[in-house]
Structures are given as C-alpha cells and as structure tokens.
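Re: the multi-chain job from yesterday

Posting the exact lines I submitted so nobody has to dig through the queue logs.
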Amino acid sequence: MEIATDVVVEAQGLTKQYKTSKGRQSQNKTVVDQLSLTVRRGEVLSLLGPNGAGKTTTVEMLAGFRQPDSGTINVLGGNPWKADVAWRSRIGIVSQQTPSSDEVTVEEVLKCQRTYFPQSRAVDEVLELVGLSEQRHQRVPKLSGGQARRLDVGCGIIGRPELLFLDEPTTGFDPEARRQFWDLIRLLAAEGTTILLTTHYLDEAEALADRVAVIIAGKVRALGTPAELRNASGSEATVRWGLGAEANEQQTSEPSSLLRDLLSRFDGEIPNLSISRPSLEDAYLTLVEANAS
Amino acid sequence: MNSTIPLFAKPSLAKVSVARGRIEIRSFTRSREAMLFTLLFPVILLLLFGTIFGNEEIQGVKYAQVLAAGILASAVASASFLSMAISIAVERDEGALKRLAITPMPRAAFFLGKILMVAFTSIVGIILTLTVAVLLFGVSLPSSPGRWLTFLWVTVLGITACTLGGVAFSSLIGNARQAGPMANLPFVVLNFASGIYISFWDLPKGMQILGSLFPLKWMAQGYRSVFLPDTFVSQELANSWEHGRTALVLCAWCIIGGVLCVRTFRWLPREK
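And the result, structure tokens for all chains:
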C-alpha cells in the first residue's frame, strides 16, 4: 500500500475490547471504538481526554504492543504488531509505568539502553536534555517520582526516534520540571521528531500541540489546532463588569461595540471589567459534558 | 525506494548481551534480598545442619561431607531456579519486561544477559559453599580430573535445567509481592524430597519418588559422586552413581523447561 510520505501514523477504524468479569459473567467493554487518526511527519499531536477514554490503549496499539480487534494501522510504513527490530529502532516510547526497583544508577540504565539503538545519543547529552545530570550516579529506586519519569523520557529519546510516543509524560513533575520538559519537546519537535503526546493537562496540550485530538469513550470527538477547537465551542466572548448587585455578564459576538457602549455609559473607570474568550478548557469541558449524556 | 529510511545498522547481539549481563549482575549484587535468599541461604543451612549433625558418620564418611555435596546442588539450583523465577516474575509485574520488549533490543540478548547473571551467581555460590565446606567441615576437594569433569557436566546441565525451569515457573507467579514466597515453596519442598538435608536413602518411598522426578535430586547425587569416596556408592539406592541416568534426567528437564519457556513466556504483565 502506498501512503503519502508526510503521513507517519495512519489508523482507521481501530476497535479494542477488554473482557471484564463480574462474578461468573464476563462482559466485553469497548475501550477504543472505531477510532481513526492521522499523524503528519514533524507535527506534535496531542491526544486529550478524560481518564479511561482509551488514550493509552490507542497508543499501545499504535506502538505495537497491543493488537487491535479490528481496524488497520500503518506506522512508519509498517504494521506495528508485526514490527521488526529495524522498525522499533525508529520509534521511542514513554509509557505509563511503575518505576523499576532494580538497584542500578541512572547512568547505568542509559548506558545499557543506548546499546539497543543503531544511532543513539550520548549518555551525557541525554542526561543534560532531561535534566538528570546531577542524579547520574543515583540509584533508580531513590529517584523522586518526577525524576524517575524524566529517566523514562531519557530512555525514550536516547535512540533518536523519528516518532515519539509520550503517554502522560509529566505525571508527578513539579511546575519547573514541566516547563523544562516542554522545552525539551519543543527542541525535539524542532529537530523534526514527530510526537504523539497523551495528556490530560489542557495547558500542556495547548502549549505543545500543533493539533489536538479529543478522545472520549474511545472515539475522536474533535480534532484541530488548539485555536480551532476553542472557536468551535462558540466564538462569543463574555464581557463582565460591575460589582456586587450591579454585576453584569453578557455574551456577545461583537465585544468591541459593547465596550464602546459601556465607555459612553460610565464616567471614568468601568468597575471590574473583563472580556474573556472561550479557553481550550471551556471547549474541552463542553465536549466532555456533551458526550457524557 | 523510500530514501527517508536510514540504512539500518543492527546493534551487535554480543555487545547488547554483555551490556544486559553487566546491568543484571550489578542489580543482583546490590539487592540485599537477592544476595541473602539466593546466595547465602544455602550456606546458612550448611552451617546449621553441619554444626548440629556434622560429626555423625555414614559408612565412615562424616555427614558434613554428604551434606556439603547436597548443599552445593541446592546452591546451584538457588542461583539458577530461584533467582530466575523471582527476578523475571518481579520484572514482568513491574513492567520492566514490557519496557524492554518495546525497544529494538534483540530478544535473545535479554536471555543471554540472564544467563551471564546466572553463570556469575552460580560460580559465586559454588565458591562460597566449597569454601565453607573445606574450611569449617574439613571437606576434601577431589584430585582426579575425571571427578572434576563430572563436576563440570553436572553443573552445566543442572544450571541449564534449573534456569529454564525458573523462567517457566515465573509465569505461574501473579505479582511481584508473591514472587519470593511462591518460588521458595516448591524449592524448599524439593530440597527435602531430594535428600539435601536428610539423606535421600532415609526418606519415605513417596518422597523419594517425588524427588526423583526433578533435577535437584540428580544434581546432588552427581555431586556426591564427585566429593565422596567410591566405596560410599553402596549407600545409593541403585548401588551406583547412575551417571547415565543423571545426564538423561537433566537433559530431559532442559527440553521440558525449554518448551515450557517458549510456550509460556510473556513480556507483558498480567491484566489487572
């Protein structure tokens, strides 16, 4: 099958069910439901969705360690489920996982990890990129949650992947570590790495993603740039002014003309004035609520 | 042809296997539980039983000598069966195996790395056991090359059979917390049923049959033929060291263990 070279991930009609057993009866729960998704070369695509929406299962199928019940997947020109060593060396994966209890140091883990890849980065470079230079001789079980997560990221990028899967990579990061991580993602994206980022942090998706796919109940419910998603939930701005009993709130598609009107009505300062546009969060919550019913 | 795909230079299997072996050995030697339960435990039992019954004699041979041969088999089985069963069960449950399976690491390198670790810990276990046996219980080492040759093949076949058995057994263990107790249970039972602490010929018939089904009994018997005088052979049930049968049973377990490994090995943790 010929696919356009600027498409890195092409998934169509992906479905995955899990067996759930209740007492003696076993039922099938559909986790991913006819999901289709395309990721273009060089873009950062964020999968956004509530817990249990099927994000991780989708990533696991795209990365080749879970077989879909139905649907077709083409990642880097091949079927991930039948991937060979050459294919694996072109992708990087940071999945959700428990930290290792092995008594080995950060440096030892990375030194071993880099032998798996044909064109790996130097250990020093990776330590620098993920901000673990000071912890290089520290044992893995002694790392904090965020540091352990950064080591996972280091293992994911040491092989210079063309395509990087990041499944909730910033869980357990403090705000500063998150900003550093965002810088790292921007750097990797600038180098041309295609990134599929799963997150439930809206600010993260907004800060990093070229496009956002909102996944709810196993389906892609919305897809577009963060700006497109914001506008889709209504382009009306909300204008608020006044205090206490005088407080007013008005939705309008022409906030400027409302403002001119207000300026003429008030002498001097308009008390407590604010004009807000729908945020990605508003758009996202609207989608989640609409699909919950 | 698609020119964007770089030419793939495969990392050498030998290099990756050595890197795996190095990190496995480091992780093992730094883990207190692993060192205590798989390396020191057999030696502690040698000290205990040797101190209590060491001076009793069986056919002019001190019990400590008979015990040392058995403990050697137990130490080798511990370094191979126990350490494999426990480490793989823990790594599977913690997702460490999954983490490896999604890298381009050649899968063979994982197993070769484990084999390097088992070889290392077995050698350490053998040296520890023999040192204690020689220094504290006056056990004499064999001088004839023939006996050392027996020592070598019993050790190599025993380690192989127990390693494969341990990898296969790990699939029965559901989570990391159960790994130690679940692997130790059959191990301790087999230590008794194989005549490690209490002489095999003194065991009830049923236990003898049970012990004869598994490698440990045959490894211990093989080591007795290495470390005890030839006259002692009259104590053995078959009135023979049974080298042929020992080799056969150990080889059979290598095949059974190998088949079970291939059929049951999973890189992913159990669904929760």
